[in-house]
């Protein structure tokens, strides 16, 4: 029988962290496949649905439109230092700073590219746990805004099938720099409503 410990130890060192249960299951599946024990089970592919896209775009906006129809980057309104600088549909990253200017097409293309990365992260965090399209969309919106899907208690509760408790967790994520933000409170309420929708 194959000793898996050296493989897991090396991947831990490479990542600089441990694994959650869904990652352990996926690594086990990949190892089984590599040694010919079982076929590799594919991770289900999830895509953001129309309700999730509309919710994210509503809250992110595509603001700071200039007279020429292009868009300026702007500082985070809730942080003390302005970080992260944002442009378009809530896009952030090392390529976005004061003075960054994009066209509408650039804003839309970046959103479409980024949102699948966030959807993939939510899929990984959920592992084999089932999710309705509305639950998935709400979790992607949450993650797109917070980046916290891997560590949030609401994710753990969802994976345990404790959906009513998970739904209540959205309301805890309303702070920026330690201050409650009315906009975050309202966004979390809409995400929670979408999450609980049939």
What do these coordinates show?
The chain has 198 residues and is mainly alpha-helical. The chain has helices at 5-15, 21-34, 50-60, 104-126, 133-146, 153-159, 163-169, 182-196, and strands spanning 71-72, 101-102, 175-176, 179-180. The protein has 2 domains: 5-34, no CATH class; 50-196, Lysozyme, CATH 1.10.530.40. Helices cover 52% and strands 4% of the residues. A hairpin with a 2-residue loop joins strand 3 and strand 4. The chain starts with a helix and ends with a helix.
Major β-sheet profile: 2 strands, antiparallel
Q: In what order do the strands lie side by side in the largest sheet?
A: 1-2
Rough shape? globular
Helix content: 40-55%
As a whole number of angstroms, the C-alpha radius of gyration is 19 Å
Instruction: Determine the CATH topology of the largest domain.
Output: Lysozyme
CATH class of the largest domain: Mainly Alpha
Q: Mean pLDDT across all residues, rounded? A: 86
Distance separating the two termini: 46 Å
What key attributes describe this structure?
mainly alpha; glycosidase; bacteriolytic enzyme; Lysozyme; single chain; host cytoplasm; Lysozyme_dom_sf; two-stranded antiparallel ribbon
